[in-house]
Amino acid sequence: MKTLQSIISALILLLCFSSCSDKESLQNYILANAENIGFSSSSIPKSVLKPIALEMNETQLEAYEAIERVNVLAYRVADGKENKYAEESKKVKQILKQQKYQELVSFGSRGMVKYIGSEDSIDEIVIFMTDKEFGFAVARIIGDDMSMNKFMELYKLVSQQNLSADGLDLGVFSNFISMPK
């Protein structure tokens, strides 16, 4: 009996350790490349996401309040590094093909927005934008009590704004937003 309990305990521990060490996660990819040459990373303070001039309705404000943090990793294409860009972009796309990521918006070859969770309880939103001239950028929006409806209201608000005129600097994502569609 004790042998059976020991085996079950060992299996439970093994399962816990293997599930906690997801090497192919987006978070691990960002952490592994944050300091690498060609990459730039940052954590965007929540306060930067809401300039004073940006008026929000109640739903948009709730979506903004649900955001806990935003992490961004960008890879800039340099002359002679096109193969590295293609390789790194492919790695991110492979990670985002995992079953836990559900597609929200597709921009075709330019990128995508995916999320983890359910429509009523989103844990993470991932925005991936890519361009052969600029490179790529991936943002992880981590939140609490985010919902699809709230996020879509916030998305509509941001997409309708002249971001630079409103004083909102999204850094590398500004390149992708201002690109012709």
Structural features, described:
This protein has one domain (2-178). Helices cover 39% and strands 29% of the residues. It is built from six helices and six strands. Helix 3 crosses helix 5. It is globular and about 50 Å long. It starts with a helix and ends with a helix. 20% of the residues are buried. Mean pLDDT is 77; it is low at 4-11, 13-21, 163-170 and 176-181.
The N- to C-terminal Cα distance equals: 66 Å
Q: Given the helix and strand composition, which structural class is it?
A: alpha+beta
- With strands numbered from the N-terminus, the spatial order across the biggest sheet is 1-2-6-5-4-3
Instruction: Return the domain count.
Output: 1
Provide the residue-averaged pLDDT.
77
The low-pLDDT segments are 4-11, 13-21, 163-170, 176-181
Shape annotation: globular
Please summarize the sheet with the most strands: 6 strands, antiparallel
Instruction: Give the H and E element order.
Output: HHEHEHEEEEHH
